[in-house]
TrEMBL record:
Assembly and oligomerization: NDH-1 is composed of 14 different subunits. Subunits NuoA, H, J, K, L, M, N constitute the membrane sector of the complex.
Gene behind the chain: nuoH
Record key words, sorted: Cell membrane, Membrane, NAD, Oxidoreductase, Quinone, Translocase, Transmembrane, Transmembrane helix, Ubiquinone
Xref: Pfam families: NADHdh
E.C. number(s) listed in UniProt: 7.1.1.-
Family to which the UniProt record says this protein belongs: Belongs to the complex I subunit 1 family.
Keyword Secreted appears in the UniProt entry: no
Molecular function via GO: NADH dehydrogenase (quinone) (non-electrogenic) activity
Biased composition (Pro residues): 409-421
Lineage of producing organism: Bacteria, Bacillati, Actinomycetota, Actinomycetes, Kitasatosporales
Function, as annotated: NDH-1 shuttles electrons from NADH, via FMN and iron-sulfur (Fe-S) centers, to quinones in the respiratory chain. The immediate electron acceptor for the enzyme in this species is believed to be ubiquinone. Couples the redox reaction to proton translocation (for every two electrons transferred, four hydrogen ions are translocated across the cytoplasmic membrane), and thus conserves the redox energy in a proton gradient. This subunit may bind ubiquinone.
Enzyme class: translocase
Chief localisation class: membrane
Sequence intervals crossing the membrane: 18-42, 89-111, 131-154, 175-194, 206-224, 261-279, 299-319, 331-351, 363-381
Protein name, entry field: NADH-quinone oxidoreductase subunit H
Organism: Streptomyces flavalbus
Length: 454
């Protein structure tokens, strides 16, 4: 194994008694649920502060029970099922969207594997379980959650929810490719797909410093994966009247809302684990306090990092407008995927040279030289392409524009012009024609009527 890769030891997992495993599973569920309740209140408070408003302040001290009141209100509302819906899929869709959002937290480490804590006299790790392919497990359950949105749009039996579900499917395909490439860069550096091993590999330096491009790509893709502004295309109320959840009400609508915020918690926890050192204390604290990464303190650092990323979600929603759907697809396919693949090749090259014991200066020269060669080739290709375009013949004149094509008026496209409007009769002449005056004889349309009268 390379000296730059952390040793993978998962022998500490899977040895807890059943009752302790149940307690840890309930804790993971409660952690996500309480974080969702807090995130809803915090979002409304922060957005109100950004917009110079008061925000929720009625339910509980400082409005902290507002999200709980919203949940109770939704549960007490009438639960409707539309007539044209596929009832089985219609009821199952919110469950499919919500359950996977809670499953990914099972492999997220809240503390170091080697630092066991005591729960009712039993020593255990601060993590429910871990797998050699834990990150593939997270990608799998995240993909399953999207099917809940797609099925909700299809089973509603309505046009706009169907469009919202199709948008979600296209968005998932577009952004999960770049997300997987960002994960692969972390796998190359850590030498493992285990979440606990990835955090252990960041003992000297967090991957947000070593892999900044991967971190930025993941930040963009995680916003798209959870359908949050400015990428909330599946529920764009401006053109979809609410999107995939238009025909849902009561507790089923609340489950979709719960799934959205639970996914925010999950992707923030994954970003913390992969790039921000996981449960490790930040740099100033870890230098002068040796016990910062022992006991229950790692959970505090982990929660603070997750809340910082949640604030980033809220800040985006309160400051950026929604993008157009073509801009969303262009960013995913033409920007994120090519950049992530090129960056992955660079990371793989650097890792290979480091494993061969090359000096850092030589690696920088090789990588920099390769980047310069690629830029030079692209410049030459662009120059010849522009020259070829200039030598082409002038484009033919565009065809004439017919404003009544298809039997109804259509606006002109860019580069087309409306035909000139024929000159209208003078106002006095029009008034004489309407009133039946003597000048109506000048209008050829009345010749037949005068001949019949004679």
């Amino acid at each position: 194994m390379s000296p730059y890769q952390a040793a993978e030891d998962l022998s500490l997992f899977g040895t807890d008694p059943w009752w302790l495993t149940l307690i840890k599973a309930v804790f993971c569920f409660a952690f996500v649920l309480v974080s969702v309740l807090f995130a809803i209140v915090w979002e409304r408070k922060v957005v109100a502060w950004m917009q110079l408003r008061v925000g929720p302040n009625r339910h509980g001290p400082w409005g902290l029970l507002q999200s709980l009141a919203d949940g109770i209100k939704l549960m007490l509302k009438e639960d409707l099922i539309v007539r044209r819906a596929d009832k089985a899929v219609y009821v199952l869709a919110p469950i499919v969207a919500t359950v996977p959002a809670f499953m990914a937290i099972a492999v997220i480490p809240f503390g170091p594997a080697g630092n066991e804590i005591s729960i009712f006299g039993q020593r255990t790790t601060m993590q429910l379980t871990d797998l050699p392919i834990a990150m593939l497990y997270i990608l799998a359950v995240a993909s399953v959650g999207i099917y809940g949105i797609v099925l909700a749009g299809w089973s509603s039996g309505s046009t706009y929810p169907l469009l919202g579900g199709l948008r979600s499917c296209a968005q998932m395909i577009s952004y999960e490719i770049a997300m997987g490439a960002a994960f692969a860069s972390v796998f190359l550096y850590s030498g493992s797909m285990s979440t606990s091993t990835i955090v252990e590999a960041q003992a000297d330096r967090w991957y947000v410093i070593l892999l900044p491009v991967s971190f930025l790509i993941y930040i963009v893709t995680m916003v798209g994966e959870v359908n949050r502004a400015p990428f909330d295309m599946p529920e764009s109320e401006g053109d979809l009247v609410g999107g995939f959840n238009t025909e849902y009400s009561s507790i089923k609508f609340a489950m979709f809302m719960l799934a959205e915020y639970a996914n925010m918690i999950t992707v923030s926890a994954v970003a913390t684990t992969l790039f921000l050192g996981g449960w490790r204390a930040p740099w100033p604290v870890s230098t002068f306090w040796e016990g910062a990464n022992h006991g229950w303190w790692p959970m505090l650092w982990f929660v603070l990092k997750v809340q910082l990323l949640l604030f980033f979600f809220i800040w985006l929603r309160g400051s950026l407008p929604r993008v157009r759907y073509d801009q969303l697809m262009k960013l995913g396919w033409k920007v994120l995927i090519p950049v992530s693949l090129v960056w992955l090749m660079l990371v793989a090259t650097v890792r290979t040279l480091r494993n061969e014991n090359y000096d850092f200066t030589d690696i920088a020269l090789y990588v920099g030289g390769g980047v310069l060669v690629v830029l030079l080739l692209s410049f030459v290709a662009d120059m010849f392409r522009d020259r070829g375009k200039a030598e082409q013949e002038a484009p033919a004149a565009p065809p004439g524009f017919d404003p009544m094509a298809g039997g109804f008026p259509v606006p002109p496209m860019p580069g087309q012009e409306l035909p000139p409007v024929p000159r209208r009769r003078p106002r006095r002449e029009r008034e004489l024609i309407v009133s039946g005056g003597p000048d109506t004889a000048s209008d050829g349309s009345l010749d037949g009527k005068e001949a019949s009268d004679g």
